[in-house]
Amino acid sequence: MLSRLLAAAALVAPLLLAQTAMAREAWSAPSAKETTKEQTAKEPSVAQSAARERQKKCGAEWRALSATEKAAQGPKWPQYYSKCVKRLKEQKA
């Protein structure tokens, strides 16, 4: 009986070691779905870069305005931003 148990253990032990090694590799290696943002990030298009620059310029102008100037330009950021983008696009054209 003991010899049968030892024989069975001798057969099962390498399988368990192989299975453990495979599980270790599966946990350590990132899957295709788990790629980092840096690996999948693309360069912005020309239009996206231009829009980002307009947003930065309008934001800097908005922060520089006083409360009374903001009320005269448009009391909220979305209204001011819309006017600012139109103005910047006209200046470029």
Largest sheet: none
Span from first to last CA? 92 Å
SSE string: HHHHH
Give the overall pLDDT as a whole number: 80
Query: What is the helical fraction, as a range of percent?
Result: over 70%
Q: What is the approximate shape?
A: rod-shaped
**Would you report the number of β strands?**
0
Oligomer: single chain
Number of helices: 5
Backbone CA Rg: 32 Å
Low-pLDDT regions: none
- Structural category is mainly alpha
In terms of DSSP E residues, the strand content is under 5%
In short:
This protein has 93 residues and is mostly helical. It is built from five helices and no strands.
Describe this structure in words.
By secondary structure, the protein is mainly alpha-helical. It is built from five helices and no strands. Helix 3 crosses helix 5. The protein is rod-shaped and about 95 Å long. The termini are far apart. The mean pLDDT is 80.
Blueprint of the fold:
Blueprint (H helix, E strand, L loop, with lengths): L1 H27 L8 H4 L5 H19 L2 H7 L3 H16 L1
Helix pairs in contact: 3-5
Question: Which descriptors would you attach to this protein?
Answer:
93 residues, mainly alpha, 5 helices
